[in-house]
Design a protein that fits this description.
Helices cover 31% and strands 26% of the residues. By secondary structure, the chain is α/β, with parallel strands linked by helices.
Length: 186
């Protein structure tokens, strides 16, 4: 059986990988996570996923290595992980009553040296949130380690009015797209 490695420390990505039903390992290497916001964000997130996968693959050329990264963007502004509660509140105010995009890039590196990068773009519509709702949500601490300051699979779900796209990609890993690509190895 082919060895499978997820190049991510994200608990959500690890949870989603388990749903594939294949044994996998986790290994993470430090990589440059800078992006060019003047370029295509879809291309940039694929580059980030490639860097993560390649950093691990160089030590495991006999394995399938999967790297992923997710960007939350509104009006071409990237909303990363908030640095503090005030930044989280500002992000949530931007999302409130608006539609934003979640772009997840994935790179899969194969034992035969082939590779592919792809991305999934989903649109998420937030309901209007009151200042009180935003404050109460930030107090839960859930927004603090999430791009865009919310978790669609957590408490933040109650503010999501509509999604268009892949729910699992919004969580951080487009499972079906990955499954279609790697199942022949297992």
């Amino acid at each position: 059986m082919t060895k499978l490695i997820l190049a991510s420390k994200s608990p959500r990505r690890q949870q989603l990988m388990k749903s594939l039903g294949y044994p996998f390992e986790i290994e993470v290497q430090d990589t440059n996570e800078e992006i060019n916001t003047h370029s295509s964000l879809r291309k940039e997130v694929e580059i980030l996923s490639y860097r993560k996968a390649k950093a691990v693959y160089k030590n495991h050329t006999d394995a399938i290595v999967i790297g992923a990264d997710t960007l939350v963007t509104i009006n071409h502004e990237v909303l990363g992980k908030p640095a503090n509660e005030e930044v989280a509140k500002e992000m949530l105010k931007k999302l409130s009553g608006n539609v934003h995009e979640v772009i997840t890039g994935v790179t899969i590196l194969y034992p035969d040296g082939s590779e592919e990068s792809f991305s999934s773009v989903s649109k998420v519509t937030f309901d209007i949130m009151s200042d009180e709702e935003i404050d109460e949500y930030v107090i839960t601490k859930e927004p603090m380690d999430k791009a865009g300051a919310y978790a669609i699979q957590g408490i933040g779900a109650k503010f999501i009015k509509k999604i268009e796209g892949d729910y699992y990609a919004i969580m951080g890993l487009p499972i079906h797209s990955i499954y279609k690509r790697i199942k022949k190895y297992f």
